[in-house]
Amino acid sequence: MLASLSVLIVDDNASMASALADVLDAKGHQVYIANSGAAALAILRDHLVHVLLTDVIMPDMNGVELYRATRQTHPGLVTIFMTAYAADDLIQQGLREGIKTVLTKPVDMDFLLYLLSATRSIIQSG
Amino acid sequence: MTQKKKPAAQPKIRTPASSSRRTRQANGNKVTAAKPAKVIGTNQVTLQQEVLFQVLRALSGQLDADRVVQSAVETIVRLTSYPHVCIALPDKSETHWVVCAAAGILAAEMGATYPVHQGIIGRVFQTGQVQWARDILLDPDYVRDVHTTEAPALRSEFVAPIRSGEILLGALNVESDRVDAFSESDTRMIQSVADIISLGLESARLYHEAQQEIAERRLAEQGLLESETSYRGLFNSVTEGIFIQNQQGRFQDVNPGALRMYGYSREFFIGKLPANLGAPGKNNKAMYERAFQKALGGEPQQFEFWGLRSNGEIFPQEILLSKGIYFGQDIVIALAHDITERKQVEETLRQNERKYRNLFNNSEVGMFRTRLDGSEILDFNEKYLEILGFTYDEIKGRPSVDLWANKLERDRMVQLLKDQGHVTDFEFVLLTKQGEQRTCITSSHLYPDQGILEGSIQDITERKQTQTLQKAVYQIASAAETTRSLDELYPQIHQIISSVMPAENFYITLYDEAENLLRFPYFMDAADQPFVDGLQPGKGLTAYVLRMGKSLLCTQAVHDELERQGEVKLLGVASAIWLGVPLIVEGKTIGVMVVQHYTDPNAYGEREQHMLEYVSTQVAIAIDRKRAEQKVKEYSERLEEMVEERTRELRQAQEKLLVQEKLAVLGQLAGGVGHELRNPLGVINTSIYYLKMVQPDASEKIRQHLAMIEHEVQNADKIISDLLDFARVISSDRQPVSVGEIVKHTLERFPLPETVKGTMDIPGDLPLVLADPRQLEQVMGNLTVNACQSMPQGGQLTISAIKIKEQVAITVKDTGSGITPENLLKIFEPLFTTKVKGIGLGLPVSKKLVEANGGRIEVNSQVGLGSTFTVYLPVQDK
């Protein structure tokens, strides 16, 4: 049984990323942090990551682009969008391309932890 | 009778005295005070007529040529403004003319003799025509006085020939010290005077001739007695006809003169009677037979007899009958003198006199002679009687003072006459026979020696009345100009009418076509009240005038008659007399103007009717014009109002647009800001979550603060959500949801404060509604939070739901402060808020959300009792 998940948090806001990382870390998950799409892809190249938790609107590469970049290399990666916009064109785009989950900021932490534990169960059974 | 063609003249009348040594024309060089020329005015004709009349009077009965010309000159000087006058007559030889009468500066010329061709007067003797020297200095015939260099005292001269038919009798010379002093009418007058003088001179000449004839006849009679031979010679030679009549009146013998006279042979006459010679119907047979008998008795007789010549011509004769003896028989000798020419002259004289008498009688002005003391009217003409309304017998000899309405006026005129000898256009009020007062003017002269007043009188009542009316019309027209409204115009019209006639009770009625009503916009009445709400045009007098379009002078009799005919009925208070005239504009009767009197039935008559009719046109025009003006004014005011209203509407629309624009900008702003705020809120939220997680045993105080931060992050997030929801187009993900579930979640997310007691009343069998659950939850959250905030002191919150037809009504009811009706209308408008905190988007967003889900939201509220919001949503299966 997999005790924890490996989660990559991508957000250009460093505070947001580290606060999330602290909570998930405290809950026993393996957490990576990237402040840009490029940094995220670098981490993905070197480390095993189960869940990609990414902001949508970022300066260099937005969440949808990042998601597309991982499709070929990491087809099994579970991607969760976090956004300040409830209805954004980018979100719609991501949903059309296969994104299953979009969380609006401020993120309901209980719901996020619940999602992660559900995901862990799926990975274990898969 | 000798008649000669011009320039032949009458025998010299008077031997001129050689009083003047200087040879000069009839002008002097002594300067005398210039008398101003008479003012030529309305009375000019009158004055001229008077001059002529006076000259005629002065000359009538004058049988001496000297006195004729002297009287003429005196009369001219007395009555005209020309004091320098003379009359020149030719001398016996007709080679010279002589000044026979003179006055003024020309008096020095009295008796002077000049060659017949000399001077301006000489030209008259030469040509027989009028001579007019406007400036004698410029006249070629003016002879300068060689003894002086002074300017002549007389500067203009008018000379009229005195003539009888073709015969020139003399010249009337009038001069003035002013250049061009004579008006055309004055020269005509001078010529007329000259004509009258000629009549006088002719009369004098005839008289003179008659005297001579009588002397000759006497001589003949004398001879008859003296010698039979000489009698026979005379009998045969005299031009007069001599008829010897026997005692039966039959002709025994006639002389050649008689044969010439009648054109018959001697044989014709013998044995005939005078009746056989008379013109039928012209003679009084009884008269001349009586005369014959008297003559036979030795009493000589004289009478006129009209004869009939053999050629049918009739002619007048003067017959002298005397007794004689012829061959031893008592006979009557008839001496017949053909008086055709004399008769003609007499006839001319009579005609002239009749002409001037006619002038006097038929004059357009009244003429009179009265005593200065007013005790007796002496003479007057037809017009005078006409003005006064009296007959000849009624007025002749009556005191003239009785005719004056105001005796003081007469005193004033008498004083003026005494002071200056005459009055001109003296105005006074005259009483006619009927007691009517007429305004008259009189011009008269005083003859102080006789205490007699002569003059003319004119009735100017109508003229004055016309002037008054014209003034009134002008005033009405100008009132229409100067007044600002009809209400100002009416009293002015009343005032103007009052200046023309008594108008204590006066009203104006206008016909309101639209309502078929008589309106009374102006009503001044001592006894009656106006019909404030108007009056149906019925049987009233006013309606009658309106209907007929003709004025009505309504006396009691007229009223009775109209009532009998069923035309009118009495309305209001009966007046003694009522006068109404229609107000007509362009052939249309727009109303009626009325005056009435309650006590005096004679207050108005035909005269007042005409006057009121006269001014009514102008009144109608003034009212019509003012009315049109007012209409235009009202319309323009309404137009202004309309423009104002439109402007207001436009401004409101513009404001609304502006608000929407503001809101759109706000939406964009909110989108950007919301995004930016949500990120830090997310961080704070996550950090708190971490702190709470890692410090489950933290002190109460720390946990309390963490909860506070968490709560405020929630509030902040809610504001941002509202902003974003409001700004963007809402799309709903509608699915069947349970109202109970939603309410439960809502109360979990927004727990009620402790002071508020919550009650839920949602039936278990309530059908699911079709709605976006998150949006419905947001709406319920808004309503719940608002309800709680309206009850800061606590209260009861009731959330209930009920199915109504195909809808579910969810109500959120509080017992809070309530909403004022004024605010109730605005609470769904964006940015409206009564809260200290909050930006006023909650209810607008809720409304927007409910409507996006096919529902609607309603509110009921009573201040002090609380509010009830109801959300209607469609049920899942209809």
Describe the structure.
The complex is a heterodimer of chains A (126) and B (878). Chain A has one domain: Rossmann fold (3-Layer(aba) Sandwich). The mean pLDDT of chain A is 89. Chain A is globular, with a radius of gyration of 13 Å. Chain A is an alpha/beta fold and 126 residues long. Chain A has five helices and five strands, in the order βαβαβαβαβα. In chain A, α2 runs parallel beside α3. In chain A, α4 links the parallel β4 and β5. The termini of chain A are close together. Chain B is of the alpha+beta class and 878 residues long. Chain B has five domains: 166 residues, GAF domain (Beta-Lactamase, 2-Layer Sandwich); 115 residues, Beta-Lactamase (2-Layer Sandwich), CATH 3.30.450.20; 96 residues, PAS domain (Beta-Lactamase), CATH 3.30.450.20; 166 residues, Beta-Lactamase (2-Layer Sandwich), CATH 3.30.450; 145 residues, Histidine kinase-like ATPase, C-terminal domain (Heat Shock Protein 90), CATH 3.30.565.10. Chain B contains 22 helices and 28 strands. In chain B, strands 3-2-1-6-5-4 form a six-stranded antiparallel β-sheet, with helices on both faces. A five-stranded antiparallel β-sheet of chain B has the order 8-7-11-10-9, sandwiched between helices. In chain B, β10 and β11 form a beta hairpin. In chain B, α1 packs parallel to α4, α4 packs antiparallel against α5 and α17 packs across α18. Chain B starts with 43 loop residues before the first helix and ends with a strand. Classes of the chains: A alpha/beta (126), B alpha+beta (878). At the A-B interface, α1 of A face α17 and α18 of B.
